[in-house]
Structure formats: structure tokens, C-alpha cells
Design goal:
It contains 13 helices and ten strands. It is α/β, with parallel strands linked by helices and about 350 residues long. Helix 2 (about 100-110) runs parallel beside helix 4 (about 140-150), helix 4 runs parallel beside helix 5 and helix 8 packs parallel to helix 12 (about 305-320). The relative contact order is 0.14.
Length: about 350
């Protein structure tokens, strides 16, 4: 298959079978590249999720959208779409569920009796600044609630749209209430357009780091995921560039292709990079004990074998060379007004 056969602007090249359903809807071949994004309002009862993974640092997360238009074939969140009766393939990118009641649910959460504030990760599953946010502005409203209640929040995104909300982020940063993590897996713009087709350009992400930093907003970078044979030669270049732009810290992840992410990624890389697809897949297997995925806590983060160790060594060098002496601030919970606000309401 030639690269020209890839469906532009999408990671998934097909729908894949939903493990919970007997049947999967597959658009006609001639319609695959014209499937339009559909938005469906859903009405969850809660918006804040307790994170129970042993190898993740955050205690809470919240996601204003389900599904993601950014189109990254390797996205670990794809299998969550199957719980809604959709496919982890094209459906994940084109059938977006919108939680318009999220701000009200967040305020209700903050008012819970006995709640002890802890930083909440905004995103964690799907991107809170994906293109849908331009229309619905749910993330902006969530940030306003956090500012009103003086509650700390970590923002994770691949999109420079975060700069739209500087008017909220800046006063939050002055009170140590916010940090922003930008995901930058590559600075190669041609590769970026293929890997994450509807995210912001690499240049715009670097500009976002500069602007956020200039406005006193702490910036962390996620080099995620590192895919051997694809972007694994870039970490040092990325770390130098983001450090020069003002980033204060970084993290990284090794690619892992669990459950229905595997067939989506395999189809994508065979379409986008037919000349090196098998090499990349074999390199991933070398880090994952002969498999493409890994679910075991801690093991899923570190991988195994020579390739994984070479990647870890590269990032250790990058940390010492470009981030030594840089400190990332701890967000503050001391100003949280939720309990006080609730007590005052008793006297109204």
C-alpha cells in the first residue's frame, strides 16, 4: 500500500470491532474520508473521576468530552469509546460526546461535605482543548469554576487553543492554582501532521510554551508517546527546544497499544509508513515482551530490553543537559473556598 492511500486528517483508517458488540458499522469505502464529526450531548451524573492507577501521580481527573477529534492512532483512550457502543476506530474521532453540564457538576463536587481539595487533571482521557472546545467552551467554563473556588488544576493538551483562556489562567497562576502540560511527541512538522493530524502545529506549540511562560504560567512538556523507529531520534532536540521556550519540566511515555488501539495503530502505520511499518512494530514488540501492549502497572511505563533502555538513557541525558536547576512549582490548595462558601450559604 502506498502512503497516498491514507485517509488524510484521520488516525483511524477504519472502524474496528467493538469487543462488547456483535456488529460494527463500517462506512462505505468511498465515504471513509468524508465522514463528518457529529456531536452528541450526554448527561453524566459526575464529572470528577478518582484516579486509582498505582503508577499515576494524580488523584483526580475530569474530561469534558468523550472521544477526540485530534486523530492520534495510538491514543490509549480509544477503547473507552466501546463502552458507549461505538468503535475505537473512526467513531472515536468523529462521534464526540459533549458534557455541557460539566461546570455545574464540578461546582457540586466542590461543595461536597468533607471534600479535601487536591489538584485535578483536566484531560487525562481525551483532550480538553480539542477542536470541539472552540464551539462549546466547556473547558473555559470549568476553569472559571476552579478560579471562583480557588481550586488547583493541571491542564493537559496537544492544542495551542489553551492560549485563548489566558485571561483565566494568568490570575490562577498568580495564586498557584494552575499548570499546563503540552504534549509534543515530534518537532518534525510532516511527521506531526501524520501522527496527530488535527492537533496544533509544532511551531504553534512552541509559541504556546513561550506565551504561557511569559505570563507566569508553569509549563510542563510531555514527549508522548515515544515510538521507536518513528520519533525516537528526536528527544534531545525536543527537550532543548522546549527548555529554550520556557518549559520548566518534562515527562515522557513509551508507546503501548492495548486492546483495540492495536488494530487502529497497525492499520495506520501500514498505510502511512508502508516501508518501515514492520520494523516499527517489531521494535515496539522488543520493548513489550513480544507484544504490542502492556497493562501491568509500572511495567507499562518503563518497558524492557535494549531499545527501552536507550530511550530512558536519552531522557536522563536531556534532563541533566537542558533542565538541571529548573523546578516545577507545587500547586496550592490553601485558598480553596468550597467549604467556606458552603458554610456561608447556611446563613443565607
Amino acid at each position: 500500500m502506498q502512503k497516498k492511500d491514507i485517509i488524510k486528517g484521520q488516525g483511524a483508517q477504519r472502524n474496528v470491532t467493538n469487543r462488547f458488540e456483535r456488529y460494527t458499522y463500517e462506512p462505505a469505502e468511498e465515504d471513509l474520508d468524508t465522514v463528518k464529526t457529529a456531536f452528541t450531548e450526554v448527561f453524566p451524573k459526575t464529572i470528577v473521576n478518582q484516579v486509582k492507577s498505582e503508577d499515576l501521580p494524580m488523584q483526580y481527573s475530569m474530561n469534558p468530552y468523550q472521544g477526540c477529534e485530534h486523530g492520534c492512532s495510538y491514543c490509549f483512550a480509544r477503547p473507552t469509546h466501546e463502552y458507549w457502543g461505538y468503535s475505537a476506530g473512526i467513531d472515536f474521532e468523529r462521534k464526540i460526546m459533549v458534557k455541557k453540564n460539566a461546570p455545574e457538576l464540578l461546582e457540586k463536587f466542590f461543595r461536597k461535605k468533607g471534600y479535601q481539595p487536591a489538584p485535578i487533571l483536566l484531560s487525562g482521557n481525551t483532550d480538553c482543548y480539542q477542536p470541539a472546545e472552540r464551539q462549546f467552551e466547556i473547558t473555559r467554563k470549568l476553569l472559571k469554576v476552579c478560579l471562583d473556588y480557588r481550586h488547583p488544576v493541571h491542564v493537559l493538551t496537544k492544542n495551542a487553543l489553551v492560549l485563548r483562556d489566558l485571561d483565566i489562567l494568568q490570575p490562577m497562576a498568580e495564586q498557584q492554582l494552575v499548570s499546563v502540560s503540552l504534549s509534543i511527541p515530534t518537532l518534525n512538522e510532516e511527521l506531526r501532521r501524520t501522527m496527530e493530524p488535527r492537533t496544533s502545529s509544532s511551531a504553534n506549540k512552541l509559541k504556546a510554551i513561550e506565551t504561557l511562560s511569559q505570563n507566569g504560567i508553569p509549563v510542563n512538556i510531555m514527549v508522548a508517546p515515544v515510538i521507536p523507529g518513528l520519533n525516537s531520534d528526536e528527544p534531545l532536540n525536543i527537550l532543548k527546544s522546549v527548555s529554550d521556550a520556557g518549559a520548566q519540566s518534562f515527562g515522557y511515555t513509551l508507546v503501548r497499544l492495548n486492546d483495540s488501539v492495536e488494530p487502529v495503530f497497525v492499520k495506520w502505520i501500514e498505510s502511512a509508513f508502508p516501508d518501515r511499518a514492520q520494523k516499527v512494530l517489531n521494535l515496539i514488540r522488543s520493548m513489550r515482551g513480544g507484544k504490542l501492549g502492556e497493562k501491568r502497572y509500572f511495567d507499562r511505563q518503563k518497558g524492557e530490553g535494549n531499545i527501552a533502555e536507550m530511550i530512558h538513557t536519552t531522557f536522563r541525558i536531556g534532563r541533566k543537559k537542558f533542565f538541571e536547576g529548573k523546578d516545577f512549582p507545587v500547586l496550592s490548595t490553601s485558598g480553596f473556598t468550597g467549604t467556606k462558601e458552603q458554610q456561608l450559604r447556611l446563613f443565607e
